[in-house]
Amino acid sequence: MSRLGKPSFPVLISAEDIIVQVTGLIEENRWKDPVVKSPSLVFLPYWFFHFDSFIEPTDPETGEKSTEEGERGTAALDAISGDLDDNVPQLYDHYSDQLVVKPTQEQFKVERSHFREDEVQKLAQLKMAAKLGLQKDDVVISGVRMMYLPVWIASAVFEENEMDFEIDAVEGNVLSEDQVPYKGKTASEIAKETFFDLREPAKWIGYLIDLAKTIAIFLWTNPVTEYIKKNFWTNRSFQYAVLTLVVLLIILNDFVYHWWK
Length: 261
Fold this sequence. Notes:
Mean pLDDT: 80
Transmembrane segments: 240-260
Number of strands: 7
Strand content: 15-25%
Distance between the termini: 68 Å
Keywords: Membrane, Transmembrane, Transmembrane helix
Number of helices: 7
């Protein structure tokens, strides 16, 4: 059983849980029979540090400057990309008493940091100053230390698609940016649903209302005369047309219903 050399958050989500989670993510987007390969465990490095910021307001009357404390807290820097991460520090608040250096899993991969500690000290100061809108000298970095975040990487195949999912092994949060595409309804599915709708008279009324709305919107958004707009709903020809359409729909609905039975 290998050691990491640095503390890591605990692995609380199993590989089996990841397979179930990824399968659910795919199926809820209407894809059928996804195949999820066995996930692999990777430990990603993060640099944690404490930051204190200070501001120097100027007294409007005397013109003298004073030093006041600003924001402070714990932050984390992705040790591979060098970007600040807003989510990982929250894990530290909840799991700092469960850190491990010797995972129970037998197979895993450990990614190495792309930055040395002295480089992180300078980079973190610049990153936090930019985030807080301060000069770099107004931010003090201390307590720099590296920790690992365990992440499950799972590949899935569904129909003509193939995707990789990155999910943290602590709380099961999806880290990968790509979203599972939504599979829209096929033409046959839409036709089948519409056909079933036609068996219910109430649904016909809905179709009729939608049709009336469409006509109204068309007239209101096209260059017709004010006279037509004012007399649109009281126009007898239009009223007869609507009444005729209702009768035809009722007759057709009765025919479809008996034919289906």
